[in-house]
Amino acid sequence: GIQVEQSPPDLILQEGANSTLRCNFSDSVNNLQWFHQNPWGQLINLFYIPSGTKQNGRLSATTVATERYSLLYISSSQTTDSGVYFCALKRSGNYQLIWGAGTKLIIKP
Amino acid sequence: NAGVTQTPKFRILKIGQSMTLQCTQDMNHNYMYWYRQDPGMGLKLIYYSVGAGITDKGEVPNGYNVSRSTTEDFPLRLELAAPSQTSVYFCASSDEDRGLAEAFFGQGTRLTVV
Predict the structure, then answer these.
(1) Among A81-85, B96-100, B110-114, where is mean pLDDT lowest?
(2) Would you say A88 and A99 are in contact if contact means Cβ atoms under 8 Å apart?
């Protein structure tokens, strides 16, 4: 099956710093999403981005489908950005979202 | 704008008990899913449904059952609860018929089996 690798596994930053999270995958996909799981366990949709680039405030994401990776950029980090960031994807005709292991982000004040 | 609503948020079960996790969505999505998330892991698919009356197994279906009598509701039934079913359960929905495959998730149900 398709493999999803996220890096880094853990990231500790000071408030105000920028960060780049990476998601590599082993096969072509038609659906890629980035989620933020906050410390209370809630999954928050960040981006639906099977290809191209999107921006939403301090966050942006880029997926290069032909090279099988996606990047999530967080600028001017705030303590509320802390949590685990997951990428999840699926192939055409497959109903299951395959999840990476996540990047645990801690933003220190 | 409720989206996907799950109840209950927390539950403790004794080994061998049964329960139903409720999930309802108000976005008129045809596709609905149940996932479980074990500590420190991503989510794994338990069951999914592509429309009312149609359900199918995902990656980890053992010990669970589902039904889909309406577009809105997709309950998950646990029979004979076991400690291995201690997990956080998420319900999700998407509207793939219109090519909009973004999945939206409920707030989760934290289940402990003791």
Answers:
(1) B96-100
(2) yes
Amino acid at A99: W
CATH of the domain at A74: 2.60.40.10
Closest chain B residue to A83 measured between Cα atoms? B40
> Beta partners for B108?
none
* Domain spanning B14-97, CATH class: mainly beta
Among B41, B44, B58, beta carbon nearest to A101? B41
Compute φ and ψ for B44, nearest 5 degrees. -125, 140
Backbone angles phi, psi at A87, to 5 degrees: -105, 145
Say if the Cβ atoms of B110 and A86 lie within 8 Å.
no
User: Who's near B22: CB < 8 A, 6+ residues apart?
Assistant: B6, B7, B8, B73, B75
Option in B42, B59, B104 nearest A100 (CB): B42
